[in-house]
């Protein structure tokens, strides 16, 4: 189907760093999805557009597309899309310095991702919560979340994810003054 093809081409172009051309494919696909009554594709395209605006630090535009996607996701019980949008809203709030709001959005995303057992994205959201807690000066709480993220990465045999969580745990243990644990996790990160 043409809408899906445009969306996939847009995603591939964005993955290559060609945001302008990727977005043009999204913007071509979006009205076709809307006219065709393709609600799930409409919600997905809206958060994908929001994500590119977020990457480009265009937060106002990102939030506007998130809201549109979220309305469709919530009204149609599209839990994957809803969880994705809440996570993206958390990232936007984090980058705008609204850390309490970021945590609230991440928490909503986490609950939804746990409901649908989306283990890889659960780990990502746990990491986002950990990063935000660290920014709030709460490294002990951050360790709890990042440890859970690491456990998910291990269960999925995601070596790249394990390297990231191990390095982050190493830095968090430095923050709390536990250099033995810090060294352990930093060594694990280097091995992966």
How would you sum up this structure in a few lines?
The chain is mainly alpha-helical and 192 residues long.
Task: Walk me through this protein's architecture.
This protein is mostly helical. Helix content is 85%, strand content 0%. The protein contains 10 helices and no strands. It has helices spanning 2-15, 19-35, 39-55, 59-76, 79-95, 99-115, 119-135, 139-155, 159-175, 179-191. Helix 3 packs antiparallel against helix 4. The radius of gyration is 18 Å and the shape is elongated.
Task: Give the topology.
Layout: H1 2-15, H2 19-35, H3 39-55, H4 59-76, H5 79-95, H6 99-115, H7 119-135, H8 139-155, H9 159-175, H10 179-191
Helix pairs in contact: 1-2, 1-3, 2-3, 3-4, 3-5, 4-5, 5-6, 6-7, 7-8, 8-9, 9-10
């Amino acid at each position: 189907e043409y809408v899906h093809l445009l969306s996939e081409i847009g995603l591939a172009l964005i993955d290559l760093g060609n945001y302008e051309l990727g977005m043009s494919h999204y913007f071509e696909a979006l009205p076709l999805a809307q006219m065709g009554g393709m609600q799930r594709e409409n919600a997905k395209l809206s958060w994908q557009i929001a994500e590119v605006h977020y990457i480009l630090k265009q937060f106002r535009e990102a939030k506007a597309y998130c809201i549109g996607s979220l309305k469709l996701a919530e009204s149609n019980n599209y839990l994957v899309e809803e969880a994705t949008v809440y996570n993206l809203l958390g990232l936007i709030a984090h980058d705008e310095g609204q850390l309490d709001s970021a945590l609230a959005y991440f928490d909503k995303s986490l609950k939804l991702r746990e409901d649908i057992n989306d283990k890889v994205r659960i780990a990502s959201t746990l990491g986002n919560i950990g990063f935000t807690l660290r920014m709030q000066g709460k490294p002990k709480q951050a360790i709890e979340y990042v440890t859970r993220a690491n456990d998910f990465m291990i269960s999925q045999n995601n070596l790249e994810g394990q390297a990231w969580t191990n390095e982050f745990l190493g830095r968090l243990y430095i923050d709390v003054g536990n250099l033995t644990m810090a060294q352990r996790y930093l060594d694990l990160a280097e091995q992966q």
